[in-house]
Amino acid sequence: MTKNITRRDWLVGTTAVASGLVFAGAASGQDMSEMMNMGAPISKDNPIRMTNNENPYGINPKAMDVIHEAYKKAHLYNFTIGRRLTKVIADMEGIPQGCVIVGAGSGQFLMAAGVVAGLAGGNLVAPSPTFGSITRYAKNFGAEIIEVPVNEDDLHISLDSTRAAMNDETTTVYLCNPNNPIPSIIEKNALEEFCLEVSKTAMVVIDEAYYEYARDEDFSTMAHLVADNPNIVILRTASKIHGFANVRIGFAFAHPDTLAKLQQFRSSTTSYPAMMGAITSYQDTEYQKFIIDKNYESLEILYEMFEELGLQYIKSNANFTFFHAGRDATEVREKLLEFGILVGRKYRTHPNWVRVSTAKPEEMRYMVEVYKREFG
Ligand SMILES: Cc1ncc(COP(=O)(O)O)c(C=O)c1O
Predict the structure, then answer these.
(1) Which residue from 136, 138, 180, 214 could staple onto 124, CB 3.0 to 4.6 Å apart?
(2) What torsion do the CA atoms of 104, 108, 112, 117 make, to the nearest 10 degrees?
């Protein structure tokens, strides 16, 4: 591919441009022989998944029915269903429909933004640690990556440090809010101020993959900014609360001119059954509430153990938490796997911290039992 994207192509109207329901019952005290996962006994080869921040209850049953039915028409191209879905989402967000596009997961838009940022040259500024997709693409396509370490004490993303890391060559700033693997949030007023200021000179990409789980009153989406600010992109996914990880639905919210640039670099479209399922799933707030409530029930089970064992941890605004195990994360991962539990991988920046995705409460209780026995 030729390197034919300029900073001017990426940034719009900026000074930079001018200058360049399965309600599971409680269970505790279970041993591994009684525990089932996906219809089979749990084991090292069929572990309870606490590693990819998935929805342990799966797709909304009503959406699943719609998806099955939609497959009867999946042999036909459908060029209108996307508009029905983006209308539902735009109305929910209170933004113009022209500011929403749907794709096969938000990863597709992270890729597109990363490619454009890479081809634009200069640098992309991102917190560390964070979700690595956009930085990987930006680096592969030619951008320098400037990593901004999270605060040492509370592990929060620092907007001041992010500003300080930027320079005249910065074309893009990526923020993940709530962050991943550290499920903390950025205070909403400070973030809005940051977006308005920084978008004058750089593209601000905010990944809100865990948006639906965030309960902190200081959290807010920045979706309301996109219509009037062409250099702000918001990303959402149905992979988490909607359980669509392998169905593939994600959204980008941005000014139509900015969406047109991302569209040039997206890899594929999603399917009619996926979009039909999403229309049902997004509108069924009852099921979403059930998933959120179960998520927080599971988190409480973990927090109780962390408190009991005196382990430092991050209060979560997502469907996972991050805790200081006081030992190598790989050792924890391998030991838990022996008992049919798969937690997150080791992070380079925080080798003694472990990310645990929430499973069902009864599975969390089992994990707590095993963890206390092995490491307590
Ligand atoms: C922060 C973040 N963004 C994006 C994604 C990718 O989501 P999708 O499945 O929509 O591509 C993930 C997946 O784990 C994530 O954690």
Answers:
(1) 138
(2) 150
The reply to whether 11 falls in a domain is: no
What does the CA dihedral 218, 224, 228, 231 come to, rounded to 10 degrees? 60
Please work out whether the CB of residue 183 comes within 6 Å of at least one atom of ligand 1.
Answer: no
Residues 259 and 348 in one domain: no
Ligand 1 binding pocket includes 180 (Cβ within 6 Å) = yes
How close is the Cα of 189 to the center of ligand 1, in Å?
25
Task: For ligand 1, pick from 53, 134, 237, 246 the residue to mutate: most ligand atoms within 8 Å of CB.
Answer: 237
Beta-bridge partner residues of 34: none
Residues 48 and 65 in one domain: no
Question: What global pTM score does this model have?
Answer: 0.92
To test ligand 1's pocket by mutation, which of 50, 208, 239 has the most ligand atoms within 8 angstroms of CB? 239
Q: What is the pLDDT of residues 198-211, one digit of tens each?
A: 999 999 999 999 99
Q: What is the CATH number of the domain that holds 295?
A: 3.90.1150.10
Task: Please tell me the distance between residue 44's alpha carbon and the centre of ligand 1 in angstroms.
Answer: 25
Together in a domain, 301 and 180:
no
250-273 per-position pLDDT tens digit: 999 999 999 999 999 877 789 999
